[in-house]
Amino acid sequence: MCSGFMATNEEMEVNEGNDLVVPLLQPPDNVAIDIPELVKNKDKKTRTVKFKVGNINCAACVTSIESAVRKLTGVESIAVSPLQGQAVIKYITELIGAEKIKETIEDDGFPVDGFPEPDIAVCGLRIKGMTCTNCSESVEHALQRADGVKKAVVGLALEEARVHFDPNLTDVNHIIEAVEDAGFGAELIGSENEVNKVHLKVEGADNPKDMAIIQSSLESALGVDHVEIDLDDHKVTVSYDPDLTGPRSLICRIQEAGSSPKSFHASLYIPPGRRETERHHVIDMYKNQFYLSCLFTVPVFMFSMVLPMVPPFGKWLEHKIYKMLTVGLLLRWIFCTPVQFIIGRRFYLGSYQALRRKSANMDVLVALGTNAAYFYSVYIAVKSMTSDAFEGQDFFETSAMLISLILLGKYLEIVAKGKTSDALAKLTKLAPDTAYLLTVDGDGNVILETEISTKLIQRNDIIKIVPGATIPVDGIVITGQSYVNESMITGESRPIEKKPDDKVIGGTVNENGCILVKATHVGSETALSQIVQLVEAAQLAKAPIQKLADQISKFFVPIVVFTAFMTWLGWFITGVVGIYPKHWIPKDMDDFELALQFGISVLVVACPCALGLATPTAVMVATGKGASEGVLIKGGNALEKAHKVKTVVFDKTGTLTIGKPVVVSVMLFSSVSMGQFWEMASAVEANSEHPIARAVVDYAKGLRQKLESLNEYVKEAKDFEVHPGAGVSGKVGDVIVSVGNKRFMQACNISIGPATEDYISEHEQLAQTCVLVAIDGHIAGAFAVTDPVKPEAGRVISFIRSMGISTIMATGDNWATATAIAKEVGIENVIAETDPLGKADKIRALQMKGMTVAMVGDGINDSPALAAADVGMAIGAGTDIAIESADIVLMKSNLEDVVTAIDLSGKTIFRIRLNYIWALGYNLLGVPVAAGILYPFTGIRLPPWLAGACMAASSLSVVCSSLLLQSYKKPLSVQDSKTV
């Protein structure tokens, strides 16, 4: 029934190759946790933990521990394994904690290790109703005050929040309630337990009993973590472990759950993207509100400013209906009222929520300004109906035009904000919709080819990639040879050759040959998904420069309200007292009305929204643009610090050099044969991932075809030990083999003879690294390794120096080789023969001198230095640990992107500062003009409706300013280079 879906017999087996399981990029802010087993059983939350328990010597020890723990209230079960030395305990979180259980075991005389860290879950929320930085601060504070919340970050531009919480103390529903209590809307958009989740549509299940059968069948399947059933829409959502199962297996499970005559059929269901749907909904809402507002505002504008000057309409509008109430005044009142109270209702609600949480935002300013204009106009209308001689000027057109222009500004702002994530949206659409799945037999022969949705691909599937097709998932080539264009992921313009055992990245394009790829990373584990997750996290994180806007926003609105009140009071009092001449007052106005217009203009010209958008919109565009260029910036902090860098420290191997050393010379200093020498050296180096180790293993493979004395298979080294920055050692057969540099041999008290010293000196002068091999404490021989310098290294170093940035090379290699390489690329300062901690110490010493330091590296040895540096830059082809430790990942392993990262940072910070100028400039210039500072000298004043247009324009100007970063061009263009 499901045979068409089955790819290989190994499909359900756990992938044993760690390099195929670990994601290319680890998401930021990872928290190492012991995943809880949260089970709703009679409204009780339970959790299962594992303790490592020492001193368990016999069955009596097991009985003692189990007896002591079972006496505790809240413990449901305990199982102790004397062989593994661990205890597995299930308990009710409301009644007891893991700390109490640990103390009980220790009081019984058994030490406990490996105490689990507190459970931390992460969820993403869509926040509705935020208009300025004050709102995002309010949401953040509300979340941080909620019980069980450990950390909360709110992004104004994205309108999202990322919340870390203890699931034993709270849940998503309570977190959403905390947001709603603060006066904002919230909905769940994702959580970490949704990383591997599939949505399925079920046909043939007509009643709850059928759905219960399906749920039971799925829950009993290997690798299924959680099952959610939607009875109304006949949909099933399954969370699963991709190492053990996958979407196709789950579909088969549902179909197999049916029994004659009842049969079930399941198909993939892809829910609509919430973010894009929500954005379009908001855009449509503002657009419709603006059109509706215009429907009433245009007549008000015509009745107020156009028709009175067009006969005979002017006389008709001036016709008195009752006493001094005219037709024009009544019509303006009628048409303005729906705009003020129906269309403008959102400003009342926003003001109420803001004032309820004892803060103020843009809605407060708009509500105050429009209400002042509207209700004063109502006062004029009422007085006109009760007087035979009163004449006054109404401001109904001011209220209606203000609301319409602000809605237009918000509409344009939302449209522009959507474009800030265009680069990220393009990345998410790179994966193809379908792929060709091959079914193979036990001998590896293809027996079936099926076109399936890429969402149904599982780990270990064999996928056929034809020329011109997009690779759907990450994997390794098992058959065929081709060139793959990876520019859409890494920015590398030159197609990369791919042959068996080479890795390929999902979203890249196969250019010519047909290849078969074995899927190793699927779903959220693919490099493409990891890139998107990293960029999304970076866009949500706040840059330190954002603190300026946060500080200003706390006092912004109260100061504006106070300034507006003082403006009205100042103009009104001076008018009443007669300090300024009466001819300053426009026709049909009095001193109160003139003062009121100035006060309203001050209220509505000031915009706190622009300040809140200045930083996040620029960060969003910059991180998205960087990702499209192959430079992944993990957060606003790294983006801001990179432009301050004054010193760049480069690792040598794999960073300045290509990272693929080759053995160029060999010399024996003992009686061992060449075959035995390489047999011993390769046996130890086979366990190391260092580039030199790979060179040794590759060289040994080549010798197998030439030397009969060299065994066909590499021997296994026991007691293998890595000495970071120095060498490796292990036991091969009955002998101890040490492979490393001169410093390592000296540390092991192995004497180095004159002949060996001469060999080392001779080859180090040629910029070659000499590696010594000792067997049972005596030097057996040495070999020289050279690692070609990257072709762009010299040009990059020269450009960095032209930027006023000093460069240093730090390596564990010897001084002679390091100096020769540094001279070749143009680096004057060299740190050689240092271990990983020594690199980190050197970086800290530079920081103590007040320097901002960037570290560029690619290996595990570089991770301490990457973490210690102000800005860590990891070469994308490096190790997962190095990438995880870095702030910036250079995906295409090209040194030119070191310059790109620093330059993009500088351009972004410049754009942020320019955004602040736009935001503050409108306010610093607009408020005095709105307050009438120019009026006595020039007669120029800012009408309230024009002040409202300026407020809307300030936010739009900031967003458009940030969008200019999309036209960023790299200072150094990528050039094709031949690999030496």
Summarize the structure.
The chain is an alpha+beta fold and 980 residues long.
Q: What are the defining features of this structure?
A:
alpha+beta; 980 residues; 6-stranded antiparallel sheet; single chain
Overall pLDDT metric: 80
For the secondary structure, the number of strands is: 37
Distance between the first and last residues' Cα: 54 Å
The number of helical segments is 33
* Adjacency order of strands in the biggest sheet: 25-37-36-35-26-33-34
- Give me the Rg, rounded: 35 Å
The unreliable regions are 3-43, 974-980
Structural class: alpha+beta
Overall spatial form: globular
How does this model look, in words?
The chain has 980 residues and is an alpha+beta fold. Helices cover 45% and strands 20% of the residues. The chain has 33 helices and 37 strands. Strands 25-37-36-35-26-33-34 form a seven-stranded mixed β-sheet, with helices on both faces. A six-stranded antiparallel β-sheet has the order 17-16-18-24-19-22, with no helix packed on it. Strands 27-32-31-30-29-28 form a six-stranded antiparallel β-sheet. β35 (853-857), α29 (863-868) and β36 form a beta-alpha-beta unit. α10 packs antiparallel against α12, α17 (546-577) packs antiparallel against α19 (608-628) and α18 (591-605) packs parallel to α33 (944-963). It is globular. 46% of the residues are buried.
